[in-house]
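Fold these two proteins, one after the other.
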Amino acid sequence: MKRAISLLLVITFALSLFLTGCAGKTTGGVDKSEPIRIGGITSLSGALQDYGQQMQRGFELGLEYATKGTMEVAGRKIEVIWEDTTTVPDVARERAIKLLDVDKVDILVGPASSSDAAAILELAEEFKKVIVIDPAAADFLTGPAWNRYTFCTGRNSAQDAKAMANVIINNKPGAKVATLAPDSAFGRSMVDPVVGALQDGGAELIHQEFPPAETTDFTPYILRIREAKPDYLYVIWAGANNPWGQLMELDLESHGIKITTGAPEIAALRMMQPMIGMPGFTVYYNSVPQNPVNDWLVEKHKEKYNSVPDLFTSGGMACAMAVVTALEKTGGNADAEELIKTMRGMEFDSPTGKRYFREEDHQAIQPLYEIVLTEVDGVDHPVPKLVREIPAEDIAPAITVPADAKR
């Protein structure tokens, strides 16, 4: 009898230790011993390599900041697996399938290209995994192509358009505006939302020019703009064959036409030397936001990369901070349904201040900045100087998710 009781006590004690160990690993259905796997999918080569690398750096720094250097959240380690889309949609789809089906990631983040993002969205829905988009900015990603697994921490082109219209109308109510943009999907997608944004503010788009993307002589296009006599010319251009020099040579300012644009990444700013004094807006420039998050980012980026953070570094950091904020709120639960419920309407911090995911389409609503390009000694490009912060609600885009989309 004594032996039986002793054996029972031993078994009971062993079972107690086993259950205690299990409890340490599992809390609320979450296995704390398993890492949270994040699939980073972006342009690490190809046409948008610079954008993708900026996002990657920002995301990794954002995880460091948001987890206070522990690289874990709610007791679970964070593991990031990066894949290169090569800025080719078919490759993006293939690499996303690998992350979802082979690596079994819990969350996707990226990409840089809107076309890459479009190729991935249905996979997020198929595998029932949340994707957090940054910096791809096409409106349709949180509009007609949207599904309930899609969240976007970056701004979209409609927010850019509203910011540009806001700057123009703030300086000249009722302004007449012309646009100069490449004859490409990018160029036209950036101009289209400007029309409505200007009309909503009482201004008018009176003239448009769409030179081929490979144009080197912009003279005929600029002369037609000059003849149209707008108050403002909004220029949308990317690439080495830019119109800035010819715009200055043809002296639109003396014809009463102010040139404006969105301040781009640093590499493109280097080509805008003739545009010192130009007004415009920016999504981010390292010296514009004044807050502790951005101060940390600038200091840490200089320390680690011997350079200042760029346009899409900020977006990568915001993406990481949104992911960590959501996981903290779920207690480390990366289940898509829990994340969707948590992230809808969720506020999170970023290098440009507070943002929140709009419940209806999961688009991040955020402030942008009115700036003027200035010359700064020792800096090899025009430096955006803050004029004012454009309030987030003033540039919130229209909700364009289909009415029959599953919420």
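Now the second one:
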Amino acid sequence: MNEVAQSALAAPEATVSLWHLFWQAGFIVKAVMLGLLGASVWTWAIIIDKSMRFGSFRRQLNTFENNFWSGQSLEELYQSLSEKKTTGMGALFVAAMREWKKSFEKGARSPIGLHTRIEKALDVTLAREMDGLESRLGFLATIGSAAPFIGLFGTVVGIMTSFQAIAASKQTNLAVVAPGIAEALLATAIGLVAAIPAVIAYNKLSGDASKLGMRLEAFADEFSAILSRQIDERTPAR
């Protein structure tokens, strides 16, 4: 009896490795697992990339604000920024100044029309910058919400396959049932491994993107007010 009990306990232990469970799973369950593993790898790539980009973007904003409020003339700042590719506040500044210079070079007569064109240039550039900040965050949200259900689908298919194998073998002892159930549950575990970091990262990164967007909007409004005063000063009174 003791030998039988020891062999029953040793059988599940021999098949407990994740690698063995993966190879013993059916085709559909394997496909689910591989898809979830691929989604998990891509999720971490997005998390690392966006975290680095947000950090760099935040430093660029701080540098631009220091230069903008340092007393340097707008013309000098525009000349230095227009010669290179800019993002963030720099892109807003260049877009507004470019419209400003074009309008005055062509002899703009309507201050209201000039102000409207500057506002439109700021809005378009701001929308483009926000799209860049929020790009690929939707993938994190999708993985965070869908991965557990995809893993559950793999688990259901695996359990159904295990029950069919049990019915065919006509054996219902734990040593026969446990490996099939473990293979099926592995799909759910991988789904959770993919979903949990995606949900946490989405909440964190979307919050960071909103804060950066608010800084851009605040600068756009403030710079628009500055240019509006400049327009009033340049427009002769009637």
